[in-house]
């Protein structure tokens, strides 16, 4: 009887927790719409190139300021030294770049809605380093050390 109670409790806990875990990864399709705000300076995907800002292929889980061929500012490079783009760092950055690195070259006011940021990160995570389609949940989990 006790084993059945434990198993039933575990099943209920799993059913309750799974939706919450699934919600930690946003909707890449919705994130693509949010990314339209970024396209004046950034590209992502198979043919992405550095523009005013660096191309963003594989950014989730990548070292900060590590895009080949892009001239990052000294302040941004110093801030990013030893850091990896994970969910927390990306969230802080896209919410308000100037609050994170006051002398950043990035002239973007930021994205304020948590849902938009979560969806944007899911979209960014849906591309690997070569701009090929990737599993956003797996890339986010790896970047966040889960």
TrEMBL record:
Residues 26-128 form the Cytochrome c domain. Keywords: Electron transport, Heme, Iron, Metal-binding, Signal, Transport. GO terms for molecular function: electron transfer activity; heme binding; metal ion binding. Pfam families: Cytochrom_C (PF00034). It comes from the Bacteria. The keyword Iron applies. InterPro entries: Cyt_c-like_dom, Cyt_c-like_dom_sf, Cyt_c_1A/1B. Residues 1-22 form the signal peptide. This is Cytochrome c. It comes from Consotaella salsifontis.
